[in-house]
Amino acid sequence: MEIKDILIAHNFRYNKALGQNFITDKNLLSAIVGDAGIEKKDTVVEIGAGAGSLTMALSKVCKKVIAFEVDYNLKPILSQTLQGLDNVELVFADVLKLADEQIKDIVKGPFKVVANLPYYITTPLIMRFFESSLDIKSLTLMMQKEVAQRLVAKKNTQSYGAITAVIALQANAYITRNIPKQLFFPKPNVDSALVHIDIVGDKYNCKDINFVKKVIKSAFMWRRKTLANNLIATFSLSRKDSQALLENLGFEANIRGEKLSPEEFCKLAFQLKKVLKESENK
Ligand code: SAM
Predict the structure, then answer these.
(1) How far apart are the first and last CA of the chain?
(2) Are residues 143 and 267 in the same domain?
(3) What is the pLDDT of residues 23-68, one digit of tens each?
(4) Are 245 and 274 in contact (CB under 8 A)?
(5) What is the pLDDT of residues 192-207, one digit of tens each?
(6) Would the CB of 70 count as within 6 Å of ligand 1?
(7) Domain encompassing residue 63
(8) Which of 29, 69, 125 to mutate to test the pocket of ligand 1 (most atoms within 8 A of CB)?
């Protein structure tokens, strides 16, 4: 029985609030699995199993799929679609509410994330994972096209934001394909894109990555404000110290955050830490 027929047979009512736009197109499912670069030795975490179409495609090519789903109404459908797949573990939980330790207990070891995400959790989920201690190798995520463009944006463009720079500190992100809305059921209002994020580690040798992330978040906190003003607000710096810090790094005193590359944020964070230490010792 096809997945669409199973959903009809169960009289399933799609929950818009949970971003339920399913994929049943077999070519698209194999394209996602291919772009994710999944190998036989991999453990894959899927966020949002839905009716299980992507779960099934993943289970054929990897060691284990752990699929999280928040909607209990999908339980009888998933029991049918995933029946007999002994390398699939279904976990009914809101993945955003689980602590790192809970996820580690379930997943045990390194993993790759593959998901056709509910659009409203894309940014919180990526931020959550990039701030976690989880051993994630890569993320291959279906998302709204505009958000995808944000993830791969270059500095000094409108799309460039905190999430772009945070990802770029430790990973390389690519849009692997654009997907028209017709390939989802029910059809969403927006077009989508598939993004592959390959986590490669501390690319710019930032060392204290968490501090650099704090600096990046501060820089984009109020986009219209200058970087110096944002740093003053977040780190209780004096105006003199904030402007001197930027000028010593070769930036104009009134530069905005979006003009800095991820690598430049690293340098800024390194110097800022020194300034904060000095003012502590005064
Ligand atoms: N993977 C399926 C597919 O491609 O057809 C379903 C994708 S659908 C866009 C997103 C799924 O994520 C829905 O089934 C929804 O119920 C589930 N979901 C929404 N929020 C979630 C959360 N916080 N944690 C886990 N699953 C969630």
Answers:
(1) 73
(2) no
(3) 999 999 999 999 999 999 999 999 999 999 999 999 999 999 999 9
(4) no
(5) 999 999 999 999 999 8
(6) yes
(7) 3-199
(8) 69
**For ligand 1, atom 11, which residue shows the shortest CA distance?**
48
> Is any ligand 1 atom within 6 A of the Cβ of residue 52?
no
Q: Is residue 118 part of a domain?
A: yes
The values of phi and psi at residue 141, to 5°, are -130, 130
Distance from Cα 117 to the centre of ligand 1, integer Å: 6
The rounded mean pLDDT for the chain is: 96
Residue nearest to atom 3 of ligand 1 (CA): 22
This prediction's pTM: 0.95
User: Quick one: angle between helices 262-281 and 209-219, nearest 10?
Assistant: 100
**Encoded amino acid at 215, one letter:** V
Among 199, 217, 244, identify where a domain stops: 199
Kindly give the distance from the C-alpha atom of residue 39 to the centroid of ligand 1, in angstroms, as a whole number: 23
CB 44 within 8 A of CB 137: no
Residue type for position 16? K
68 lines ligand 1 (CB under 6 A): yes
Regarding whether 150 and 21 lie in a shared domain, the answer is: yes
Instruction: Mark which of 165, 199, 233 sits at the end of a domain.
Output: 199
Instruction: Give domain status of residue 40, yes or no.
Output: yes
Q: Provide the CATH number for the domain around residue 71.
A: 3.40.50.150
pLDDT of residue 224: 87
- My answer on whether 156 and 229 are in the same domain is no
The DSSP code for 24 is -
